[in-house]
Amino acid sequence: MHKDYLNYKERLDFLLNEVITPQMRQENAIYSVMEYGLSTPGKRIRGAMLFAFCDRLGVPREQSEPFAVALEMLHAYSLVHDDMPEMDNDQYRRGQPTCHVKYGSALALLAGDGILNFAMEYLLQHRKSYHAERFLDAMDMLFSASGAKGMLAGQVLDKEGEEKKLTLSELERLHACKTGALLLAPATVAMALAGAYQENYVNYCKHLGLAFQIKDDLLDVEGNCETLGKEIGKDAEDHKSTFVSILGIEQARRYLENEINAALEAAGGDSLLRWIAEYTASRNQ
After folding, report:
1. Domains in the chain, CATH or no CATH each
2. What pTM did the predictor assign?
3. Is the N end or the C end of the chain the one with fewer CB atoms within 10 Å?
4. What is the helix, strand, coil percentage profile of the chain, to 5?
5. How many CB atoms lie within 10 A of CB 121?
6. Is the torsion defined by CA of 129, 130, 136, 142 positive or negative?
7. 135-183 pLDDT per residue, tens
């Protein structure tokens, strides 16, 4: 593990474990369900990338931290909803019962909504630390990535694509939104906060996002249930189009390698970004 990644992840885990206070849990039971969704063990790749880009662009840590936490909140809310019976119907997430299994579908639905809303509340609590225009630009980048122009659009395309065979270009478009948007957000948010543009960061995130999804599809076929922390083989069981179902395992592996190489080229000599790309290719969960 890269030491910078471990430091970023440790900080994110700490902050995410602190956002729901004992007083909030006493006020309303929904906060305990939200806390469960937020505290599920995760890689924190998105937040770590946002930290990294902000550090390289000279954004102060007191400005990068709230957005990194909010980005991880948005990812957490999406997983709570993705796991529900109406979506992917997963029973486990990273080795733990999914939110709807533990608390029921109604509270899981409300907890996902709560986490989404709380991400904005959390950012607004820190708004005085920012230049107003850059804060609003960063908010725009973050919530556009998670909304109907980004991740949510991909989720709709995913549901519409069930039970029919998608073309490769249709699948790429789907995952550029569903998976790619929140993996592009670290770059776009950091650039908005810095008031600067780095094309190599954008290219890096786009290639990484596609590689991340290809690897997910391969793990659903080749992964180990115990290591992965969730069921495998569900894509085929649900008749979903994936990079493996369209390309086959060997060609999907080559596609993954090409995207990782493109991400490495965009990363240049940045050791952390290179490590994240290589980790994406080799991960087993």
Report:
1. 3-282 (1.10.600.10)
2. 0.94
3. N
4. 75, 0, 25
5. 12
6. negative
7. 999 999 999 999 999 999 999 999 888 878 899 999 999 999 999 999 9
